[in-house]
Specification:
Structural class of chain A: mainly alpha
Distance between the termini of chain A: 68 Å
Largest sheet of chain A: 2 strands, antiparallel
Number of strands of chain A: 4
Strand order of the largest sheet of chain A: 1-2
Oligomer: homodimer
Order of helices and strands of chain A: HEEHHHEHEHHH
């Protein structure tokens, strides 16, 4: 059977038998290839997903995240911090993954300043290692929005020249982004620190923040895989009056055309944003 | 040599010799393992990065992207559309990659509605296959902001029941997001269509859009790898007066605390947004 024929028959098998197989964790077909039958989108064949995880040291990962930023930018740096540890401790399949897959996430996707790259890269590590990626990623994002960056631990490491790459020993001022967006996170910090976003202090702030996000991710994964994970930054902690109407669970008429978990007030102010209906009850 | 010692010596080698090796594409050390020496963050060892690419059929990928949405949500669906084709045509290393690595990106990262998941998953495919991921990803994002979704092609496929998964034959209204953010992209479409964001029409709109984004990504990659890529949606097309001051290349004093390529007016209106200095010259 050619590779193409084999692929086609495997797809047929997947689409036809996906429901029957739901609930099993792996199946063995063809010439020794594994796939994850809970998803017909999962045609990867060499290794069963999710990939294995072992407990990692958040402090080692914090340092790697910081240093990884200077090598591959924020998103790749965060993924590298976690995956390189798993490459060392487990080997395959992690040695098959190029961490450059998240290179695009740098600067909130190629400088567009959308999603914080540290979150993007770290969430990829979560998705690689857990079926509960939705819950764990959401926790990480919610934590990020409420956390002062850079952390005191990262500032201390810099002060003591404890990173491998030590570009600054300054204790940097902390800011809380209240947003998972690179644009908001960086701009708030720069305004608080009187710093242009292209300056070296801002780079060092983001490097320390990548380490902090990677370390927190490992804390979440360690807890999850040892059965002790509990969400601490749930959606309900961030919810506010807007979502009583503006939620994907509501009808169009009451405002259900909107959705999301970001803090609305970051962009929508007193009904003045372009996205707010001029007949909003608050106007 | 233990695996740990081997890893340490490899890291030392990388950090010490990275500069000297810059420009080469691969090196061979230790027991038959490859790595990408242009980046000390790249400790992956089994396959050289970027991974090989062959010309793909955008129309086949468009259908796979649509159907992949219903299986693994937007972000995983976009990555699946491209990677599953490369799995069929090339095999390894693509068969080593679980497309679930981008599962977290669904709903703009676990429902947070930040970066559009289709962009997130598609950009991962770009980063996997090209060293120029920054330029190509930026082009894809810029195109997305200016493109009406769902495309006429996707509407036509739905009308003709030409997808594998045909949930609706409706020709859906198109909207242009002017933003790479899920929240903006979805809300604009919902308001235009009188549709709650949790309704099946909105899901079908996003499914078609995932197909459209995956197809465009393949067009970009086909052009790039055949040497004919030219950016058509450059930053300068989107730039406006704000960025003359508010850019990472400017000093703090003239507004260089800001950065990014998103359309400022999506959130900042007439100086009334919380992020705008009350002493802004326009006030």
């Amino acid at each position: 059977m050619s590779q193409d024929q084999n692929s086609i028959s495997r797809r047929k098998f997947l689409s036809g038998a996906g429901t029957a197989l739901a609930g099993t964790t792996a199946a063995f077909i063809g010439h020794g290839l594994f796939f994850a039958p809970q998803s017909s989108a999962a045609v990867n064949e060499e290794f069963e997903w999710p990939w294995p995880y072992v407990k990692l040291d958040p402090e080692k990962v914090r340092i790697k995240g910081h240093d990884g930023y200077y090598d591959g930018d924020c998103s790749q740096g965060a993924l590298y911090a976690i995956v390189s540890e798993l490459q060392e401790k487990i080997g395959k399949p992690y040695t098959c993954l190029p961490v450059q897959i998240m290179g695009f996430g740098g600067g909130g996707v190629a400088g567009w300043c959308t999603l914080c790259g540290a979150l993007n890269g770290a969430c990829a590590a979560i998705s690689l290692t857990s079926e509960d990626f939705y819950k764990l990623s959401s926790e990480l994002v919610a934590w990020y929005c409420e956390t002062p960056f850079p952390s005191e631990k990262s500032n201390e490491l810099a002060k003591n020249k404890a990173f491998k790459i030590n570009k600054s020993t300054k204790v940097l001022e902390q800011t809380v982004s209240k947003s998972p967006l690179c644009h908001v996170s960086v701009c708030k910090w720069c305004k608080e620190n009187g710093c242009g976003s292209g300056c070296s202090d801002r780079s060092e702030r983001c490097a320390r923040m990548v380490g902090d996000v990677a370390a927190k991710t490992v804390e979440i994964l360690n807890a999850y895989h040892s059965g002790s994970f509990q969400a601490q930054y749930s959606e309900s902690d961030l919810a506010h009056s807007c979502r009583a109407c503006h939620s994907k669970d509501k009808s169009y008429e009451v405002g259900g055309w909107s959705r999301g978990k970001m803090d609305c007030s970051g962009c929508h102010i007193k009904g003045e944003s372009s996205m707010v209906d001029p007949h909003h009850p608050d106007n």
